[in-house]
Amino acid sequence: MTATVSFTIDSPLGPRPTTIAYERKGAGEPLLLLHGIGHHLQAWDPVIDILAAEHDVIAVDLPGFGTSEPLPKGVPYSLGTVAPALGALCTALGVERPHVAGNSLGGLLALEMGRSNLVRSVTALSPAGFWTEAERRYAFATLLAMRAGAKALPLPAVRRLSRTAAGRAALTGTIYARPSRRPAEAVVAETLALRDATGFVDTLAAGGSVRFTDDVPGMPVTIAWGSRDRLLLRRQGIRAKHTVPGARLVRLPGCGHVPMNDDPALVSRVVLDTARSARLVAA
């Protein structure tokens, strides 16, 4: 069940209150899950029960997405604001340096949290920030087209499309390699999440100049890329490996940009292996 927590974040405008929605499940070392732009915490539904068998899992709606409130007026949706805000969220929930796994925007935020030493391990699935300018423009244009499509379709049409494999492919084929596996109700919900995301425009605007160029030392890092990622092309994983040379680079065969639905067992194993390696280092 989704809950909310309110806390104060630091921002260029000074301390500001914010409220984040999250779902918490399981027991063990904490594991924070971060979704991509235009998505919501339910992106992790295919893997959350597997992960919760070993971890205290906290899946969050990022600020301005899902049912989380937008950031306070005038507060930028930048790495320098959102990553520390996620650290403040962990403090508000009584969690110290969780493991973190993120997809796309969430993967970029996970790496930034690792760079800032806010977490104990990082799993980044197709993280943003390793693109060329041409690749970034392509990804942003694709996202804007998806958003425009979600806004243009009336809800009855979305529901009707979601009931067929071809319709699910039309709605979500850009991000899933196997969209027919996605439940119809999930496709409806994530289409609405994309349509209604109050933080979408500001997050995209803030991402225009983002390049992740720093190493993430002192903790296990895994960077994983779907072989069928149509949004952030898999060659960006090679650049990520060069940027974070100590990272483990993993190929996710047959997976798209949001791999949790395409191969839940594989994605879960990648996340769990990264967390286990942190425990081995600590021992």
Could you write a compact summary of the structure shown?
InterPro entries: AB_hydrolase_1, AB_hydrolase_fold. With 283 residues, the protein is of the alpha/beta class.
Low-confidence stretches: none
Q: What proportion of the residues form beta strands (DSSP E)?
A: 15-25%
User: What summary fits the major beta sheet?
Assistant: 8 strands, mixed
Task: Work out the helix count.
Answer: 11
Spell the H/E element sequence.
EEEHEHEHEHHHHHEHEHH
**Helix proportion range:** 40-55%
Shape: globular
Alpha carbon gyration radius: 17 Å
Distance between the termini: 34 Å
Q: What oligomeric state do these chains adopt?
A: single chain
The count of β-strands is 8
Strand order of the largest sheet: 1-2-4-3-5-6-7-8
Question: Please, could you describe this protein's structure?
Answer:
- Pfam families: Abhydrolase_1 (PF00561).
- GO terms for molecular function: hydrolase activity.
- It comes from Streptomyces virginiae (Streptomyces cinnamonensis).
- This is Alpha/beta fold hydrolase.
- Residues 30-260 form the AB hydrolase-1 domain.
- With 283 residues, the protein is α/β, with parallel strands linked by helices.
- Helices cover 43% and strands 18% of the residues.
- The protein is built from eleven helices and eight strands.
- The protein has helices spanning 45-52, 79-92, 105-115, 133-152, 155-162, 165-172, 184-196, 200-207, 236-243, 259-262, 264-282, and strands at 2-9, 16-25, 29-34, 55-60, 99-103, 121-125, 221-226, 248-252.
- It has an eight-stranded mixed β-sheet with strand order 1-2-4-3-5-6-7-8, sandwiched between helices.
- Strand 1 (2-9) and strand 2 (16-25) form a beta hairpin.
- Helix 1 (45-52) runs parallel beside helix 11, helix 4 packs across helix 7 and helix 5 crosses helix 6.
- The longest helix is centred in the middle third of the chain and has 20 residues, at 133-152.
- The chain is globular, with a radius of gyration of 17 Å.
- The mean pLDDT is 96.
